Amino acid sequence: QVQLVESGGGLVQAGGSLRLSCAASGSIFSINRMGWYRQAPGKQRDLVAIITTSGTTNYADSVKGRFTISRDNAKNTVYLQMNSLKPEDTAVYYCNADALSGEGLYRHYWGQGTQVTVSS
Predict the structure, then answer these.
(1) Three-state secondary structure call for residue 74
(2) Which of 78, 75, 74 is closest to 97 using CA atoms?
(3) Are 37 and 45 in contact (CB under 8 A)?
(4) Strand locations in the chain (E)
(5) How far, in Å, CA of 31 to CA of 97, rounded?
(6) Closest CA to 28 of 74, 68, 61, 67
(7) Which of 19, 27, 69, 83 meets the CB 3.0–4.6 Å disulfide criterion with 49?
(8) pLDDT tens digits, residue range 61-77?
(9) Exposure of 47 by Cβ count < 10 A (0-12 exposed, 13-18 middle, 19+ buried)?
(10) For residue 40, is pLDDT > 90?
């Protein structure tokens, strides 16, 4: 199996920055797309940003120009640099990876989530 562990969440004032990290571990054969999603209270989980193995990225319109996703393939780690944070960015942020485990199971894997709170 593949495990994803996020870190870097916390409380920040509006206009501030945070950097989230997500490291994949376990029985990994390969990792394809990685990404970040977020879920605010009472709302559905939405895509924030994704990145392919080759580095192609895609962002939600609400975060374009403020957030940057990157990855270190050698470390099986994906990052999310969040700048100019707004109160509406407050949510639990989840890491996601499309991965093939050593057991031959290809599926979406999710982290446990990390809370990001932006105060006004």
Answers:
(1) helix
(2) 78
(3) yes
(4) 2-7, 10-13, 18-26, 28-39, 46-51, 57-59, 67-72, 77-82, 91-101, 106-110, 114-119
(5) 7
(6) 74
(7) 69
(8) 999 999 999 999 999 99
(9) middle
(10) yes
